[in-house]
Amino acid sequence: MATVIDGKQVASSVIDAVKTASQVLKDETGVKPGLAVVIVGDDPASHAYVSSKSRMAKECGFTSVQHTLPEQTTQEDLAALVQSLNEDESLHGILVQLPLPKPLRSEPIIQSILPEKDVDGLHVVNAGKLATGDLDGGLVSCTPAGAMVFVRQTHGADLSGLNAVVIGRSNLFGKPMAALLLAANATVTVAHSRTRNLAEVCRGADILVAAVGRPEMVNADWVKPGATVIDVGINRIDAPEKGEGKSRLVGDVAFKECAAVAGVITPVPGGVGPMTIAMLMANTVIAAYRKAGRQAPSF
Ligand code: GUN
Fold first, then answer.
1. Which ligand 1 atom sits closest to the C-alpha of 96?
2. Domains of the chain
3. What is the Cα–Cα distance from 106 to 248, expressed in whole angstroms?
C-alpha cells in the first residue's frame, strides 16, 4: 500500500512559512502584501475557490481585495479593472479566476496583468522564464508549484535518472509542470489526448502526474510498481450511494487500485488542491518582497 500524502498538512506548513515571511516584511519595511482576486459571473465552484483564496489571504495578514463582477461584464470593463489593479501600489498580486464566462477572452486579460503581479504565473514573461529555467526570477503557476513540493519531499531536489510523465498539456498546469520537472533534471514526457499507447507510456513513469479532467481514468495497470502518483484532477461525479442527487469529488486517478501499486500517491480531495491556495499565498509574499527590494523567500 502506497504512502498517502496529506496535502492539507503540507499546505498548512507552507501557510505558516508565508505568515512568518509576511510578518517579517511588515516589521522590517512596513510593506503589507496585497492580493486582488477577480471573479466574473456566477459559477458556484469558481465562487467557492475564490472565497477561500480571499479568506486565506486575510489569514496570512495580507491586504485582501475581491472584485465580483456580473456575467454581463464587457471585455473593456474587465481590462479597465485590471489596469487599475496594476496601478495600485498596495497590491502585489492579481488573480483573475478562470474560466471567464463567454464571450470574454481570457488571454488578453491575463497578458495585461503586470508580470511582477501575475501570481498565477500565466503571463508570457513568467511562462518564458520558467521555460528557460529561470526559476528564481519569475512567478510559477500555483498548482504545478504545489505538486513540485510533493515531488521534492519524495525524491529530493534532483530528479536525475527518473522518468516523469505528465498527462495533460494545458498552459495552466501541464506545460509548467513539465518545465519544473525538467528543470529538476527528470526525463519528461508530456502525454495528452492524442498520445498513442497512453497506458504503456505511463507504465514507464517513476513520477506520474495526471491532469486530464477525466474521472478515475488512470488505473492500476498504468502505474509502475513503487511510482509516485500525483493526481491533479478534481471531478464531481454522481454518488447515488450517498442519497438521491448527491455527488462526490474524485481525481483523474482510480485511487484505491492505484494506491495498491504506487509507492506514494496523493488523494482527491486533500492532495494537490490545498497546495494551490498555499502556493498562491507564497507567490503573493514573494512578489511583495521583490517590490520592496528584498531577497524573496522560497517555499
Ligand atoms: N481556475 C482553476 N484553477 C485556476 C488557477 O489556478 N488560476 C486561475 N486564475 N483560475 C483557475
1. 9
2. 28-115 (3.40.50.10860), 142-274 (3.40.50.720)
3. 29
